[in-house]
Amino acid sequence: xxxxxxxxxxxxxxxxxxxxPAIIAMVIAGMQTVIDGLFLGNLIGPNAMAxxxxxxxxxxxxxxxxxxxxxxxxxxxxxxxxxxxxxLTQDIFKTSLILLSICAILFSIIGVLFxxxxxxxxxxxxxxxxxxxxxIRVISICILPMCLAFLIGFADRLVEKPDLYFKGMIxxxxxxxxxxxxxxxxLKFGITGAGLATGLSxxxxxxxxxxxxxxxxxxxxxxxxxxxxxxxIPVVYNGSSEAMSALATVVSAYLFNNAFIKxxxxxxxxxxxxxxxxxxxxxxxxxxxxxxxxxxxxxxYGAKEFDRVKAIVKLSLIISFVVxxxxxxxxxxxxxxxxxxxxxxxxFVLDLAKNGAKIYAFAFIxxxxxxxxxxxxxxxxxxxxxIIIALSRGLIFIVIGIIILPKLLGISGIWLTIPFAxxxxxIISFYLMYKYKLPSTPKNIQVLEYASTK
Length: 454
Prior knowledge:
The protein is mainly alpha-helical. It has helices at 2-8, 11-43, 46-82, 86-113, 115-121, 129-140, 143-155, 163-186, 190-209, 232-292, 294-302, 306-343, 347-360, 364-379, 383-409, 411-435.
C-alpha cells in the first residue's frame, strides 16, 4: 500500500520517486508557453510573443484555480489516509472532481465569449488586442481537460502511480512541439496555431493520467465516494495559497506588462518575456520539488511522524538552493546567447533583456526557501501561513516595488522589483518556520481540526 511507502520508505528514495517526476512534469508544463514563444518570436516577431505574454495570465489563473482544488484535495486526502480514514479520502476526491468540472466549464465559456474584454483588462493595446484575444479564445476551448488533468494526475500519486503525470507531461511536450511546427511554420496559423497547440497539448495529459481512476480496484476512482459539501471548505482552505499565487501571478503580470509598455513599448514586454522564459526552468524546478513533497509531508504529518517531515523539508531546501544558485549563474553570466533564441536580431529588445537579466538573477538566491516553505505549510494544513508567503512574494511586495523602484531607477527599477520582493519574503518565511517549528514528538503540536473529520 502507498501509505506504507510514505510512512516507512527512505526519505531520499521517496524524494526521487515523488519529486523527480513532479519536477520534470512542472518544467515541461512551463515549457508549453516557452515553445509558443520560440516559434512566434522567430517566425512572426516580438509583437506575437508579447501577445502570448499578455494573454498568458488568464490561462495561468485557470491553472492556478485547478491547482487550488488539486493541491488542496491532495493535502487533505494525504492527511486523511495517514489517519486511516479511507472513506473520507474517497469523498474528498469525488467532491473535488465535481467542483472543478463545473468551474472549468464556466471559465471556458467566459474565455470564449469575453476574450477581448479579458485582453484589454490584462493590458493589451490596440496593436496587440486581436492576437491576445485569439490566444485566450482558442485555449479556453480546452480548459476542462486541462483542469481535470491536474486533479487526476495528482490523485494518481495516492494509488502508486506518481509517474503517470510525468509521462503525460512528456506526451504534452511532444504534442506541443509537433503542433506548433505544423500550425505555425507550415500552415501559417500564427497566434491561433500557438493557442491551439498549447490547449491540445495540455489536454493530452488528461488522456494519459485518467486510466487509474477508471479502475474500481483502486481505493479512489470515479465510481466511489460521494459529493460531500463538508469537504469543500477544507479543500479550498488547504489549496488557498495556490489560488492566491494564481491571483498574484495575474496581477503582477499586468503590472509588469504595463510598466514595461509605458517605458519601452511592445519591445519592453518582449524583453521581459524572453528573460522570464529563461528563468522559468529554474523556478519551475523548485515548484516541482515543492509539488512532489506535498503528499509525503501531508501523510507523515497526519501520521504524526514529524521527524520524517523535517527530513524531507531539509532535503528539499538543499536541492532547491542548488537549483536556484545554478539559475542565478546562468542568468547573470550566460543569458546573452539564450535570449537570442527568442528575440532574434532585434537589437533594442536584446539589449533590454541582457541588462535586465543580470538584475533579475538575484531573485533566485532567495526564492527557493519561500517556495518550499509555502508548500510545507499547505501540506500540513496551515493555509494562512502559506498564503502570507505566496502573497508576499507574488503580489504585496511586487506592488510596493513596482510603484517605488521605477520612479527612482527607471527601467532598472522594474527589473529590481522581483529580487526586492523575494528578499523580504524570504525573511518572512524564516520567521514563520521558526514560529511554527515542529517538535520531535506529537504531544506538543496542535494539529488543525476540520469540520468534515469530526
